[in-house]
């Protein structure tokens, strides 16, 4: 596992590079979109999106529109009307609070009724008449009204005046009015409001109108009905705006709440007046808010893509879009229109850019890492390391693992019979085949020690039934070795046998060594005992010996027999060891049962009866497999020795191993 040191450095370096690249991409996206925003790209789309925020409010009951509608035109006659009609309407509205005429009296009448109209206006005392600028001068940021149409002499002296000019954007939508036109009169709606309450009106170049609803939201009474004295009680103390609503009079505009239906100019003034009276103004958020939003959103999305799985970062990005929509709605309720183009554009652009970058970078790095390390650890372990490179640091964690040791029996003797080239080829082929089996079952190959292999399970990944995995690997390695032996026999290679030891228990697993050079390995008494168990195969003639802790973890999937109770070199406490024979197919073979019976007799010091059982076990195995049962033969010799030299009353059956 020495390669993991290199892997650690590569992955941590790669992760830092990706982090910096993600931040760089986010900043680059933010700069690019900020430049687009500053240049005015998509401003028309922003206006359209902002239109959807308007509406949903209630009109003030104090504002009434007296409409010059189709009904009035049909009953009174074609436009323009005799001005006595307006004189009579003013008298009907004598108890109204204010009357605002959105009707031009720019020319004298033909029948000399202007004096009567002027007297009626003078008697009411709260009248506003319209003026209209026809041309403008601009000096710096100042807009000055130049040419102007105004009421005829006689009327202008008895009423307040206000200009009725409105702004129409390039898309044909009326969203704002100018309140900063320099000249004698103020805006029409401001003039009406000033007769109600003397309140300072902001002189804004683009005074956004907070439209409360679609055309027809305000209470309307037909002009002819008011002229005939209808609705008198409903008009007392009200703010009355008189204007044209009939389509043929062409005084209508498309507004954000139009939904395909134009709004009469008089109703636009009603909306402006309500806004001034209630203070529910709307303003476009400052440019710096949009720029800051772009930067924050870009960094958040890039961080989500970097730190979170793809599906979560996708959900986060989608969530930002939803949250931002609610923020835009809430901001409008507080009187601000925030940009609704560039935050979503930032989410989509940043997400796409970082996902593409991470995909290409991940693909390149995985290919590199897999190519370099898949021969050392399984792909699942590599995936875990790629996802958590920070865990590849000096130090370790305590973990219950199953450790594996294997060694070739008599390798020195075999090596003497082969040329160096043959030996290298043999060893490489053997280690490759054995390693492949370990990796197939997600084991970690800790190290090669000449012809020996050390591996373990349940680290760094948590693996259920890790002891079973190790036992399966040990048995499959034995089977594969037998297949290789047939092949090697044809090549003149001497018979090769291995011993395997398995132990399960706590160990410290992590990177051990210096801060400059360390290996990913396992350490502790569990590991040491696993190594000792591998060496015990030689005196018993077995291939796989497992500890009692491993035996307790593997259930009934395998054929296992108790082999002995021994005290290995370096340990004071005796341990029970087991012979792992194969996969269970139901009942144990006869030789296993016979051996275990002999072992019980052995511990009772009934040497003769034990020898008889071991001999039966040896014959049963030879009959079943063609091979002698070497553990039985080993015990036969041991019993014969003990028969000659009785161990005494204090004998507990523990066999003390003098060597490793």
Short description, anyone?
The protein is an alpha/beta fold. Helices cover about 45% and strands about 20% of the residues. The strands form six sheets. Strands 18, 19, 20, 21, 22, 23, 24, 25 and 26 form a nine-stranded mixed sheet that branches. Strands 1, 2, 3, 6, 7, 10, 12 and 13 form an eight-stranded mixed sheet that branches. Strands 4-5-9 form a three-stranded mixed sheet, with no helix packed on it.
Q: What report would you give on this structure?
A:
It contains 21 helices and 26 strands. The protein has 660 residues and is an alpha/beta fold. The strands form six sheets. Strands 18, 19, 20, 21, 22, 23, 24, 25 and 26 form a nine-stranded mixed β-sheet that branches. Strands 1, 2, 3, 6, 7, 10, 12 and 13 form an eight-stranded mixed β-sheet that branches. It starts with a helix and ends with a strand. The model has no long low-confidence stretch (mean pLDDT 88).
Mean pLDDT: 88
Strand content: 15-25%
Category by helix and strand content: alpha/beta
Largest sheet: 9 strands, mixed
Count helical runs: 21
Level of helix content? 40-55%
Give the termini separation.
25 Å
When the domains are counted, the total is 4
Query: Outline, from the CA principal axes?
Result: rod-shaped
Would you identify the regions where 5 or more consecutive residues have pLDDT less than 50?
Answer: none
Please compute the radius of gyration using only Cα atoms. 48 Å
Give the assembly state of these chains. Answer: single chain
């Amino acid at each position: 596992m020495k390669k993991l040191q290199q892997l650690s450095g590569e992955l941590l370096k790669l992760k830092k590079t990706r982090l910096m690249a993600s931040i760089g991409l986010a900043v680059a996206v933010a700069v690019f979109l900020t430049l687009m925003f500053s240049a005015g790209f998509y401003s028309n789309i922003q206006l359209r999106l902002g239109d959807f925020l308007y509406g949903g409010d209630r009109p003030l009951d104090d504002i009434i529109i007296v409409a010059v509608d189709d009904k009035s035109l049909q009953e009174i006659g074609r436009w323009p009307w005799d001005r006595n009609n307006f004189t009579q309407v003013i008298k009907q509205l004598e108890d109204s609070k204010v009357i605002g005429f959105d009707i031009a009296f720019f020319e004298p009448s033909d029948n000399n009724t202007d004096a009567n109209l002027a007297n009626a206006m003078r008697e009411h005392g709260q009248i506003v008449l319209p003026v209209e600028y026809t041309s403008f001068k601009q000096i710096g940021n100042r807009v000055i009204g130049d040419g102007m149409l105004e009421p005829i002499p006689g009327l202008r002296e008895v009423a307040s005046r206000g200009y009725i000019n409105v702004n129409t954007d390039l898309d044909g939508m009326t969203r704002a009015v100018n309140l900063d036109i320099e000249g004698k009169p103020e805006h029409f709606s401001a003039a009406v409001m000033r007769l109600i309450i003397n309140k300072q009106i902001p002189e804004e170049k683009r005074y956004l109108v907070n439209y409360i609803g679609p055309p027809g939201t305000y209470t309307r009474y037909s002009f002819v009905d008011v002229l005939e004295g209808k609705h008198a009680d409903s008009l007392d103390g009200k703010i009355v705006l008189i204007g044209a609503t009939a389509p043929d009079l062409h005084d209508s505009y498309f507004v954000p709440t139009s939904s395909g239906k134009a709004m009469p100019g008089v109703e636009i003034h009603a909306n402006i007046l309500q806004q001034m009276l209630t203070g529910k103004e709307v303003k476009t958020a400052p440019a710096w808010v949009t720029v800051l939003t772009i930067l924050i959103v870009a960094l958040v999305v890039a961080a989500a893509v970097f730190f979170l799985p793809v599906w979560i970062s996708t959900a986060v990005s989608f969530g930002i879009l939803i949250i931002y929509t609610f923020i835009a709605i809430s901001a409008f309720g507080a009187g601000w229109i925030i940009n609704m183009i560039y935050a979503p554009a930032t989410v989509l652009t940043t997400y796409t850019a970082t996902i593409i970058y991470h995909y290409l970078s991940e693909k390149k790095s995985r290919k590199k890492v897999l190519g370099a390390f898949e021969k050392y650890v399984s792909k699942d372990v590599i995936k875990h390391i790629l996802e958590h490179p920070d865990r590849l640091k000096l130090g370790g964690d305590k973990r219950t693992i199953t450790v594996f040791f294997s060694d070739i029996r008599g390798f020195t003797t075999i090596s003497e019979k082969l040329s160096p080239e043959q030996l290298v080829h043999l060893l490489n082929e053997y280690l490759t085949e054995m390693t492949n089996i370990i990796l197939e079952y997600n084991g970690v190959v800790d190290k090669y020690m000449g012809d020996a292999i050390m591996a373990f399970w349940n680290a760094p990944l948590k693996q259920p039934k890790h002891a079973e995995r190790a036992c399966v690997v040990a048995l499959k390695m034995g089977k594969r070795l037998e297949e290789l032996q047939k092949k090697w026999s044809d090549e003149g290679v001497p018979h090769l046998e291995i011993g395997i030891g398995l132990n399960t228990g706590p160990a410290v697993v992590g990177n051990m060594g210096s801060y400059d050079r360390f290996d990913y390995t396992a350490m502790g008494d569990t590991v040491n005992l696993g190594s000792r168990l591998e060496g015990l195969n030689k005196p018993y003639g077995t291939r796989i010996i497992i500890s009692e802790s491993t035996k307790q973890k593997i259930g009934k999937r395998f054929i296992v027999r108790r082999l002995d109770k021994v005290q290995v070199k370096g340990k004071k406490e005796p341990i029970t060891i087991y012979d792992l024979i194969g996969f269970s197919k139901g009942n144990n073979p006869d030789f296993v049962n016979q051996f275990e019976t002999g072992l019980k007799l052995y511990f009772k010091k009934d040497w003769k009866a034990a020898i008889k059982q071991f001999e039966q076990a040896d014959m049963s195995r030879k009959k079943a497999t063609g091979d002698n049962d070497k553990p039985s033969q080993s015990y036969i010799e041991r019993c014969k020795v003990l028969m000659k030299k009785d161990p005494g009353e204090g004998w507990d059956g523990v066999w003390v191993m003098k060597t490793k």
